[in-house]
What we know:
The structure is a homodimer. By secondary structure, the first copy, chain A, is mainly alpha-helical.
Amino acid sequence: MRDPLPDFPGYSLRRAANATAAELSLRLAPLELRQVDASVLILIGENPDVTASALGRQLDIQRANMVPLLKRLEDAGLIERNPLDGKSQGLALTATGKDKCKQAQAIIEKFEAEMLERVPEPHRQHLLPALYALWQ
Amino acid sequence: MRDPLPDFPGYSLRRAANATAAELSLRLAPLELRQVDASVLILIGENPDVTASALGRQLDIQRANMVPLLKRLEDAGLIERNPLDGKSQGLALTATGKDKCKQAQAIIEKFEAEMLERVPEPHRQHLLPALYALWQ
DNA sequence: TATTGTTATACTCTATAACTATA
DNA sequence: TATAGTTATAGAGTATAACAATA
């Protein structure tokens, strides 16, 4: 079939994102974590006592949608909430959460490395800076 | 906030894809087309008498999900169906569809050019080949 | 036996509006 | 007055299973 679409960087960007996201999801499935769960765990791990609102802003997730997401992580025993003042609550990883987060990071780092290996050498080092420029 | 995520190519890939897709959607909105609608119109334009199933395979869209998509385009008067045999139907652009497709292509090409301009010069030419390697 | 087009449905993800309580 | 957390809900987008008709 004649298909001019893959020559559009925007189209290939979407297809590449879909393909890699699908694969990472499969690899995280044994941990019973979605990608966004792993992202949240990593951010909480790096920023103890971060609030749900701040996480949402950083990850481009609406406050309202953080509620069920954090509830799932809390119900799974991975995070805990500590009141900072009367209205804010700081998030932190539990011991189980820290362990799960480490496992997720190992999977992600392996995945990222393998992903980069698929990119032909001359282009490899340019991928991250190019992508970065498109959303930062 | 400490955030190691943007240094993961896979994460930046997803963020870049989301950001650019959101912008292209805004630009296509005046035509009352979604991105996938534009993709379908372009493919039909390049491949007269293509079938719904073949389109789905090319675009990674399930047969079942092509039905409401094509119905919308047909109801909008952009495509028409011609029986190829007893069970397959060839798709083609109507005159209105050809016009709409041209407008969409103009918007997309302008968008793609502006998107590439945002990528610093030394990285620009490497983006498409790098992305291509990740999903093809 | 495989494929096309289709229906129905469920599930996830996301967006929006509204409400309360507090800073 | 702005912000944090929450609830409820609606809309996309996608996945799955099943079916009839035809190749």
